Amino acid sequence: MKGSKPQLIAEGKRIDGRGPADLRQIRMEVGVLKNADGSAIVEIGNTKVLAAVYGPREVVPRHEEQVDRAIIRCRYRMLSFSTMGERKSPAPSRREIELSKVIREALEPAIISSQFPRTAIDIFVEVLNADGGTRTAGITAASLALADAGIPMIDLVAAVAVGKVDGVIVLDLNEIEDMYGEADMPVAAMPSMGKITMIQLNGVLTPEEFRYALRLALDGINKIYSLQKETLKKKFVEVEE
């Protein structure tokens, strides 16, 4: 039961003070784990996600290897202290298993896996704090971690969710908006390639609302993509210095 629905938009402002088309404050950093081949942390509002990449490396078990490409494996996990209320069980939930697959499929089109046949590239996404948009933050962080690991990619992948809250199409839903909104649509894309790699819709949008929501999502993705590039550039400039 969701309980009684709070008013989430009043006088054009959302419950956290943002306008309908505003992203939350975003912070990104790469190279945060010394023992990983690549790593990144992404904070979007109060949502905080850590991604680590290992590989290309030997495939275990060997029967899973592919002769023409690397296999991409992904595990998404919400840490037991990441949510409010009851502590989450450490065992993988059905949702975590599903989102592991969703994140992998959103990233695979960007990875040039043919350069590393008979190997595995492992992606780990850990949600440190959850306040809505964990799958999209996970995709954004994992893409940065892949780039940090030097994995060849045709483009970075950035992601954000749009939705309908109190009848208004809004960008970058937080947890309470996701919980009480009428629709939620996570989108991932490779902006410089002009390709969408993931789109999901939970709820109902009219065709006009869908088209507007998609444009809003892509606008947000372009802003996140710019931050990704700035974050990577900053690291490599620091290395050169």
Automatic annotation (TrEMBL):
Belongs to the RNase PH family. Rrp41 subfamily. Its EC number is 3.1.13.-. It is found in: Cytoplasm. It comes from the Archaea. Residues 23-152, 155-219 form the Exoribonuclease phosphorolytic domain. This is Exosome complex component Rrp41. InterPro entries: ExoRNase_PH_dom1 (IPR001247), ExoRNase_PH_dom2 (IPR015847), ExoRNase_PH_dom2_sf (IPR036345), PNPase/RNase_PH_dom_sf (IPR027408), Ribosomal_Su5_D2-typ_SF (IPR020568), RNase_PH (IPR050080), Rrp41 (IPR011807). GO terms for cellular component: cytoplasm; exosome (RNase complex). GO terms for molecular function: 3'-5'-RNA exonuclease activity. Gene3D superfamilies: GHMP Kinase, N-terminal domain. GO terms for biological process: gene expression; nuclear-transcribed mRNA catabolic process. Keywords: Cytoplasm, Exonuclease, Exosome, Hydrolase, Nuclease. HAMAP family: Exosome_Rrp41. SUPFAM superfamilies: Ribonuclease PH domain 2-like, Ribosomal protein S5 domain 2-like. Catalytic component of the exosome, which is a complex involved in RNA degradation. Has 3'->5' exoribonuclease activity. Can also synthesize heteropolymeric RNA-tails. Component of the archaeal exosome complex. Forms a hexameric ring-like arrangement composed of 3 Rrp41-Rrp42 heterodimers. The hexameric ring associates with a trimer of Rrp4 and/or Csl4 subunits. It comes from Ignisphaera cupida. The keyword Cytoplasm applies.
